[in-house]
């Protein structure tokens, strides 16, 4: 399964990022050979999506050592710490940098060239594993979707968010490669409009039949019998299956159940966080009111207005038909009903 | 019950409109003594909301006859026809103009002054009746809401949409005047953001405790037990109670039922259209894709993207706890359950 859209690429000794802040207006790639520029790019959301950020951070460490020419572990640690702090809450970012540091410790390369070999190889391994993870999710998920089916998705869980074909959208691309005609409705996903800016653009680039809707249209579409499946990504999944994902996911899941439409969560098995017993344990980040009151720099609400802007909501396991992971399908709390995900 | 926000006012021989296209950034009133300017103002949505448009149209006819100085029925008919066509689908507009013309026919005034007296008096009667209708809706509705309750609303069914205190928001203002502390969550209401631009502004002006949310947040708020009541307006109600209102209303009603939160439709009894047997008979207007892909002139989606943008959706009567009308409360299809609206 192949997609043209690539969020993160190694080009020789440089890191190439697809600048997501310029989408959907312009397709711009930036090549980086200085690690502080990559940190700045991560901060300004030029690359976003947990897997893609992790891959960019891993490459950033190799770029940093190449740039500084310093390969003593204390020197590398300074660079690593700066990269880790690019976005303090991004778990994949820390995880990727830690993995490269552990690899250096395990192999103890003795000169700059050997150090760079280790770093580039490990960064590429992280990238490749992510690509493979997406492909497996796509394979497992595609088995649930038939020719001519219509899929609704929310936010962006696509190639732009990963190092490969994406999770939720990876299922769509895999269906396409299997010769199935799939139609996608993309929620615009207020407040940050990832659906309009990123998912609609990405699917358009890939030649998928995509229709953009306001988030409030999904229920009416379901009532009109126009949606066959809902597939979303996940930011974190508690041990009991309760799922944190972009705000609006919970409503979609409830609407899907009311209309007897299967609701799938596509995410790597690593998204399950066994430290969280249920969704009640997952902290919900509140975002700045500006994200709601300003759109592309235009003020859309009165000054001084109170705003409630959670980044995520929790979808209880009972509303989820099936989890589509890289290790296989895992039934959700709705699986006992008419729709079984493991058949 | 008094509100400071007035969408439409007669000032001597002029019509004063609160320019809703400038909200929430500026509070601008425009005074009109030429009827083509009022038609232009209606076209550009300087005044919106079916009742407010009807009142503006009625005053426009009086302004037009004053301006032209012509009072023969053929002359007046020319002006009336122009006004009727300001927004061809606005039922109240035609209704108001027809009512003034019928009044002229019934009274046959013999000179300009007498003609103007008839027109101004009838326009004021329409305005006064609308004001009274709002007050009655407020009274009936307020009986359902207790001190300290939290209300969620969608779009703008407030003073800005009517000649009085509004319908859904009229209930809130009436509660306030009864000494009840009410908290309101306002859906921003994509695509045209009437909730952010108008409802949030209007409630802020009136000193009501209001919090703005993205439409996709409502479900999560309900799950957090933060919503006591949902109150919305209506564009048209079929004989069986199925209700056409701003897109997103159906989803709210379904989410409210799932969370056992009462769902009220506040609208004049005249909104019931006996010619429509059920919601399936109500035509749904599709709006321009630009409303979704552009926000305040900024492009937010890729060029050439398909968009599905219905202006309204249909909420089945079974999801409605109660209709709050100017002739009293009328139970909806959900009234048989735990929540009874007529107690």
Question: Helices and strands in order, then pairings?
Answer:
The structure is a homodimer of 343-residue chains.
Chain A: E1 8-11, E2 14-18, E3 29-32, H1 35-43, H2 50-68, H3 73-84, H4 91-107, H5 112-142, E4 150-153, H6 168-177, E5 183-187, H7 194-205, E6 209-213, H8 218-223, E7 229-232, E8 236-238, E9 243-246, H9 249-258, E10 263-266, E11 272-273, H10 290-293, E12 294-295, E13 298-299, E14 306-307, E15 312-315, E16 322-325, E17 328-331
Parallel strand pairs in A: 4-5, 4-7, 5-6, 7-10, 8-11, 10-16
Antiparallel strand pairs in A: 1-2, 2-3, 8-9, 9-15, 12-13, 16-17
The structural class of chain A is alpha/beta
The total of beta strands of chain A comes to 17
Weakly predicted, low-confidence segments of chain A: none
Distance between the termini of chain A: 23 Å
Shape of chain A: globular
The largest β sheet of chain A comes out as: 7 strands, mixed
Measured by DSSP, the beta-strand proportion of chain A falls in: 15-25%
Count of DSSP H/I helices of chain A: 10
What order do the helices and strands of chain A follow? EEEHHHHHEHEHEHEEEHEEHEEEEEE
* Overall residue-averaged pLDDT value of chain A: 95
